[in-house]
Write a structure and sequence with these properties.
- The chain has about 325 residues and is of the alpha/beta class.
- The chain folds into 2 domains: about 210 residues, Spore Coat Polysaccharide Biosynthesis Protein SpsA, Chain A, CATH 3.90.550; about 80 residues, no CATH class.
- The protein is built from 12 helices and 14 strands.
- Helix 10 crosses helix 12.
- GO terms for molecular function: glycosyltransferase activity.
- It comes from Roseomonas nitratireducens.
- Keywords: Glycosyltransferase, Transferase.
């Protein structure tokens, strides 16, 4: 296939392994209504053990995609890879998505059309679960974005390349490991808000949809998923305007859940001298489970009781993560 001389949009994808999901992403790009000679794909490999170079060659041969592949010297997380992808890109518009996502057919055409307005610098769209994939209790579905989200996740985000480069791209200083050594990124939030505060226009396009893989997590990882939110105080310190937007989106603060955590903590503390107080949360838990179950079937009641306990632990983890982040970055998020 002849190389394109002037693509209008570059799709930048960072990836580590995930060959199966990446192929699904490539198939979604091959099904775009936007003609293939108007876009390119830039795949940045974060030191995969999977043969992503071979997969890119297959996408060129079988799907007719113009795919550029580059392997990073070391895995420093998605933000440096995305920056490298933009450096390699040839188009004036950058469309970010992830290797575990499948863009719907009209994604590129809808997003590109929004930039016909020269004032628009940032575009985002919905991120929804892949159709047909079951969502279970411990499934990771925090990616779901049905309306414009104040974090502007790079699973579905578009930028003008010149502005991206002028602002220095994604700040790699916002690439962290959480207390459990899991990658945590805040660079996408930071850059989006830099653009917004600079007065550039943005658009949310309901028709520019991306479908995201539904990941089933082990129970332990599901319970501690909220540890990644420890980065929020640093983002709020940089962008105080973000505090109100995050609260409005209810990303991390749920008044009822927080009240339950506080009450449970108070009862546990008081039970040191008054053990009978432990009966109160136990009775409340059973009552809640019976109400949600709509009856007293033991298995159903047990499920709802376990779910309520899990939700309480997850809420407590979020609060502890925010406390940790507030101390680390010297900024109170609430």
């Amino acid at each position: 296939m002849a190389a394109m001389s002037a693509p209008e949009v570059s799709v930048v994808i960072p990836c580590k392994n995930r060959a199966r999901m990446l192929w699904d992403c490539f198939e979604g790009l091959a099904a775009q209504t936007l003609p293939r000679d108007r876009f390119e794909v830039v795949l940045v490999d974060n030191v995969s053990s999977d043969d992503l170079a071979g997969l890119c060659a297959r996408a060129r041969a079988e799907l007719g995609l113009a795919v550029t592949h580059e392997r990073m010297a070391e895995d420093r997380g998605p933000a440096p890879s995305r920056n490298r992808g933009v450096a390699l890109a040839r188009a004036p518009i950058i469309a970010f998505t992830d290797s575990d996502c499948r863009p719907e057919p009209g994604w590129l055409a809808a997003g590109l059309a929004a930039f016909d307005d020269p004032a628009v610098a940032l575009v985002s769209g919905p991120v929804l679960p892949k159709p047909g994939q079951p969502v279970r209790v411990t499934s990771k579905i925090t990616f779901v974005t049905e309306a414009e989200h104040p974090t502007f996740p790079t699973a579905n985000a578009w930028y003008r390349r010149d502005l991206f480069l002028r602002l220095g791209g994604f700040d790699t200083a916002l690439s962290f490991r959480d207390p459990f050594d899991r990658a945590t990124e805040g660079a996408d939030v930071d850059l989006a808000w830099m653009l917004i505060k600079a007065g550039h226009a943005r658009r949310f396009l309901p028709e520019a949809r991306v479908a995201h893989e539904v990941e089933d997590q082990p129970l332990g990882l599901w319970l501690i998923e909220g540890t990644r939110l420890f980065i929020l105080p640093e983002l709020v310190r940089r962008h105080p305007e973000l505090r109100r937007e995050l609260l409005r989106a209810r990303l991390f603060f749920h008044p009822r859940g927080t009240a339950k955590v506080a009450l449970a903590g108070a009862l546990l503390a008081a039970s040191v001298s008054q053990p009978w107080l432990l009966a109160l949360p136990a009775a409340a838990l059973v009552a809640h489970a019976v109400r949600r179950a709509g009856g007293i079937a033991p298995r159903v009641v047990g499920f709802h009781a376990a779910k309520a306990c899990g939700d309480l632990v997850r809420e407590a983890v979020v609060l502890l993560a925010l406390l940790y982040g507030s101390l680390r970055f010297r900024c109170v998020v609430l």
